[in-house]
Amino acid sequence: MSAAAAEAVIRVEDLRVALRRKRDGSTVRAVNGVSFAVEKGRTLGIVGESGCGKSTTAMALVRLLPKNADVGGAVHFDGRDLAHESPAALRAIRGRRIGMIFQDPMVALDPLFTVGDQLAEPLREHLDLDGEELHARQIELLQAVGISSPEARLKQYPHQMSGGMLQRIVGAIAISCNPDLLIADEPTTALDPTAQAAYLELLERLSDTYGLALIVVTHDMGVVSRICDDVMVMYAGQAAEYGPVRAIFDTPRHPYTQALLASIPHGVEHGGMLPTIEGQPPDLTALPPGCPFAPRCPKVVERCVTEAPPAVELPGGQRAYCWRADEA
Amino acid sequence: MATNVPAGEPASPPGRPRTGGKLRSLPWLAIILLAPVILCGILGPLLYLHDPTIIDLLHPQRPPVWLDGGNWAYPLGTDQFGRDLVSRLIEGARVSLIIAIGGVMIAAVIGITLGMVSGYFGGWTDSIVSQVVDVKMSLPANLLIVLIGAAIGGGLVTIVVCIVLLFWADYARVIRAETLSLRERGYVQLAKVANASHFRILRRHILPNLFGTCIVLITLQIGRAILIEAGISFIGLGIQPPDTAWGLMVYEGRAYLATAWWLPTFSGLAITMTVLGTNLFGDWLRDVLDTRQSSL
Amino acid sequence: MWRYFLKRLRRSLITLIAISMVIFVVARLTGDPISHFASEDASEAEIAQVRERLGLDKPIYTQYAIYVGQALQGDFGTSLRYDRPAFEMVLERLPATVQLALTAFLISTIFGILMGVVAALKRGTWIDGMLRLVAVLGQSAPSFWIGILAILIFGVHLQWLPTSGRLGPEYLILPALTLALFSLASVMRLTRSAMLETQSQEYVKFLRAKGLPESQIIWKHMLRNALVPVFAVLGIQLGHLVGGAVIIEVVFNWPGVGRLMIEALLNSDLPLIQAGVMLIATSVVLVNVLVDLSYSVIDPRIRYE
């Protein structure tokens, strides 16, 4: 199992996130026992429909969650358990050891401050850089993310730049303090198609050059196949299938993964309808006792409804959470 | 067996949860503050303890009942002419409410009409209305009042004119903006395609959608109008004695601050409670109506 | 930047012209100006002569032009009661009004913003509740009544502060605080809601992802963003304050332009009223331009408009 090797930069065990709703006292179980690991230089894709808990999972790693969120399980990073660290310790890790890239670059930066100022903040805070040194590092970072005439860009405000360029700036901020781990939450969703391709290339290059562990949250299987080494497919706050991208794309074992892959258009076939998945994801405030996908699953059996599915380890490091994963 | 499985129960979408349902708690503080005032306004003379105009020079500045020399016949005491303060406050409530509501209504009709017309038609009508609104906004209210006072003197008409001139622009501005966005809605465009007259579109398709905004605005403005009325009466341009209004009572009572503090205090308190009530009620209305609008 | 500035300047100019027109119309509305200048038993010829001297025989737009020309030179005629140039009298009183209004402006802006930030940070606690109650009360009570209560409590009973006149800095305290209250309440409510709005912005989450200290996020980023809508209404607040000063000056016997105008109103001293209104309106409009400029300092998006 490649993903669980000893060299993991981050190892997550049985991560749970519950959001207490004040209004009606109910609890949204956004993430329910997710485990994975990412090694140095490797890229993990977390993929699923909107509302499946993939972003919450990513944010939970550094506890960037609403105040009403409870985090359970363990997040092993740098010999510590981030799920139980103090807010101050987490703050020292965020931006320093773990960089983050958000979905919409147009709103990720404060509109009232220059790009240079916002790039300088983590450098001052975490690395105590100042003066010439700080400036040199700013320029170096902008060049690293492929921004031309960095000198001029530093003095500009976010509203003067395009989305693609802003996302590069966000990337520069994220890697500014040489982090060990980079978490990118839907990094290309808000970009136009040409900028998307270029940005994926950039992420790949950064991960290679700096030996970063990279987690990419996405709803797009194309992104996964393009840059990820491993993938975790999520459904209703749980992992459905996890393992190397090649293995999972070639032999998906979980019916949900199969359905997801089947819904991707291949090549230039004309006239055919893409298969869709009937029904809707379950209500996260009242999850069924068995497999959450059971109500929509074409291969459902009695047991799926009553008992939670086991983690079935398959050859090639693949792991599927399904009662029928062993069936070919 | 697929047949045994409860087929995909349409789960509730993970959107916003409903906030407390439709029966939100009512704005009780506002109701408690406003109910007596409205009662005084409607029943008026029926509630008088004494005729508020009867002068009793033998017992001027009688203190409220809980002070030495107080008397249950005059619970809040009497003024410099021996008139019963409670009865005068009731009379003042009536005058203040009528002026505030009347003035605000006239301003609303003018402002809403202008706002709808300028938002709907645009063009030069819009530029003129917007320009005048701009000018009005940058002229301090009290300067306008002084000018109007200089032009037409004091009295009831002055107050109403001031309220109308001060308030119409708020309606025009807000309603114009709302009309602009309503104009682009599908059903308005459809009505245009169906050759409905402008008047019909404005009346049937635009006006009803402005209802919530207008109600909230009118409520909040009534509070402000009471303050304006009080201010005008206070500088001597409002209701003239022997008639009375709350602002005038504060003004008159001010001269007796050292000997009869209750005179300005209670009339000002009446103003404050009424305005507080309308403000709270307006805020509540805004929340309730906005919620409904956003969930539609 | 320049386009924005010119746009505001043009708006100010139009406002001033409109105000001068209103004043002109009011002056003509208040009866035949002849009656101020000719005695009642003047002959037809004498009246015609005065008419000509005052330019009243000319068409109305010419009269307006003459009026504007005179106003620009500070000539609003002579006070009917004091027989002194009206503009001169108003100008003498201006410093007192400016002092009162600016002090109140500083109080309401600084404390309004601070209290708004505190209320937003302590949202839902009793501190927030208290501050909001103060704000809604401040917007509901007539300023002159607050002033009278202040006189009653701090002047008559406690005898801590003087309540009438302008003989030293301590005389400024009660009138300035009273005047500031309403604006303070508005600024506080606006700051509070703007801060709350800012809290849920994506860039605040990104700042946290950068590992910045919470104090830096609040006081550098959130506060500055919350100040954008607050600064947008500061000009209007200043107008409220200058207008409100008219009444506060009466309450506290403050020798400013406002009290002078109210007295002139009771004496039907029209030239004095005209001069006062025009001077105050002009000051408000000019200060508004400055406030708008400060707005562009805080929000770079306007600088590049």
Helical amount among residues of chain A, as a percent range? 25-40%
CATH homologous superfamily (4th level) name of the largest domain in chain C:
MetI-like
- Look up the CATH topology of the largest domain in chain C: MetI-like fold
Major sheet attributes of chain C:
none
User: How many β-strands of chain C, per DSSP?
Assistant: 0
Q: Quaternary status of these chains?
A: heterotrimer
Helix proportion of chain C:
over 70%
Beginning-to-end CA distance, first to last residue of chain A: 20 Å
**Contiguous runs where pLDDT drops below 50 for at least 5 residues of chain A:** 1-6
Number of strands of chain A: 12
Apparent shape of chain A? globular
* Radius of gyration of chain A, CA atoms, in whole angstroms: 21 Å
Structure description:
- The complex is a heterotrimer of chains A (328), B (296) and C (305).
- Chain A is built from 12 helices and 12 strands.
- Chain A is α/β, with parallel strands linked by helices and 328 residues long.
- Chain B has 9 helices and no strands.
- In chain B, α1 (28-43) crosses α9 and α7 (198-234) packs antiparallel against α9 (262-295).
- The longest helix of chain B is centred in the middle third of the chain and has 37 residues, at 85-121.
- The two termini of chain B are 41 Å apart.
- Chain C folds into 2 domains: 32-73, no CATH class; 88-303, MetI-like (MetI-like fold).
- In chain C, α5 (86-121) packs antiparallel against α6, α5 crosses α8 (170-199) and α5 (86-121) packs antiparallel against α10 (214-251).
- Chains in contact: A-B, A-C, B-C.
